[in-house]
Write a structure and sequence with these properties.
- It is built from 9 helices and 13 strands.
- It is an alpha+beta fold and 389 residues long.
- Helix 5 runs antiparallel to helix 6 and helix 7 packs across helix 8.
- The longest helix has 40 residues.
- The protein is elongated and about 135 Å long.
């Protein structure tokens, strides 16, 4: 019995046959003890599996370290988002940022530290907190790392939307009467083509023509400003996605039909996966990105646009990338291109990439960019709502 318990083997059952009454009582007690130990052990195993599954499901990184900095346990997010593999010591994190191990070593309970790392050349901002506990006489440190970049981007986008709503409302309320009034006043002025019945001096006619030209200019520019403001109202009019299952292969075929004249090369893999998306909104994302890609490389003697895709099993996300060999994006502005109204184009509106960012956020995903000026630029779409096969 003791050997079985030591080996966590609770399948033994001892027979009562051929035993005295006292021995039968002892045997019964032994069998009941084994059954209770089995029940308790299985409950602990179930609880352990449950909590491990729970910790492996959350989108935060969990690291448990001993006093020497050795990582004795980490969840799936930590393995995939920090280094791409299971780390064994916090010193290994210096590859992502030289200050990372030092921050973890000196952080105190209750403090919040921030650290930026680059995963696949994409910046990720982590908020780090620490909890300490003692188990069997050993002090352990539990580090909790939350990705705050997504949260910051969400709050920033909501702030921009509120600002746009207020500005467009006030501007449009002011422009509408200006357009109407300038149009009405223009009709009251006499024209040389249709002279009035009463006599007008030549100088007076010239004055009227100047006033007419001024009113027409006010009318024209007001309507232009109205169209400009209306364009920005699109940022606040993106509706809730109407989700439906769309196979990646079908989505790629649609994109290919929409852009038959563009030099697009498809390098797609695992296209039998199904994305749960709003097809119209995601098509708009591709239209914006492919339009930008073509404009970026149209001065290139050999313009090339490549669409590639694959399923990342470790992170359980589907990735679709659009790469062009155009002029690229300068490093100092890469963090700004998704900000509403920001543009590097002479006639750009600064809303195309902002709309792409919002649409991907509404789908629970994200969009990132990696660009090398005068070489390549890659926009990567990350889809999280996936139905396998």
């Amino acid at each position: 019995m003791l050997k079985d318990i030591h080996a966590h083997d609770f399948s033994s059952h001892y027979s009562y046959h051929g035993k005295s009454k006292t021995e039968q009582q002892i045997t019964e007690l032994v069998n009941e003890t084994i059954q209770k130990l089995k029940t308790t052990y299985l409950q602990h195993e179930e609880e352990s599996d449950y909590y491990k599954t729970l910790l492996n499901t959350i989108d935060s990184c969990i690291l448990v370290c001993n006093p020497e900095g050795e990582v004795i346990w980490s969840n799936r997010c930590a393995e995939t988002q920090l280094c791409g593999y299971a780390i064994h010591h916090i010193k290994e994190l210096e590859k992502q940022n030289p200050q990372f191990p030092d921050i973890l070593s000196h952080i105190k309970p209750g403090e919040i530290k921030t650290i930026r790392i680059y995963n696949d050349e994409v910046a990720i901002d982590w908020a780090v907190t620490e909890t300490r506990y003692i188990q069997k006489g050993t002090r352990y440190r539990l580090f909790h790392l939350r990705n705050i970049r997504t949260l910051l981007e969400k709050n920033e986008m909501e702030a921009w939307q509120k600002l746009v709503r207020v500005l467009t409302h006030e501007i449009m309320n002011s422009i509408a009467p200006i357009i109407s009034l300038s149009d009405t006043l223009t009709d009251y002025l006499p024209s040389t083509e249709t002279p009035p019945a009463y006599f007008i001096e030549e100088q007076e006619q010239q004055d009227y023509d100047i006033i007419r030209q001024g009113l027409e200019t006010i009318h024209r520019r007001s309507k232009g400003l109205l169209g400009f403001v209306e364009n920005y109202r699109k940022l606040t009019r993106i509706g809730t996605p109407v989700i439906s299952p769309v196979k990646v292969s079908v989505l790629m075929d649609t994109i290919q039909r929409l852009f038959t004249k563009l030099p697009i090369c498809f390098h797609t893999r695992q296209t039998d996966y199904t994305l749960l998306i709003d097809n119209a909104q995601i098509e708009q994302v591709f239209i914006n990105l492919l339009k930008n890609a073509y404009e970026s490389c149209e001065d290139n003697d050999n313009p090339q646009i490549t669409i590639s895709s694959h399923y990342d099993e470790s992170r359980r996300i589907y990735l679709i990338s659009i790469t062009d060999n155009g002029k690229g994006i300068l490093p100092e502005v890469q963090d700004k291109i998704f900000v509403p109204f920001f543009t590097t184009k002479r006639n750009g509106s600064g809303i195309g990439l902002s709309i792409c960012k919002q649409i991907m956020a509404l789908h629970g995903g994200n969009i990132n960019v990696v660009s090398i000026p005068n070489s390549t630029t890659t926009f990567t779409l990350k889809f999280v709502n996936i139905k396998e096969h």
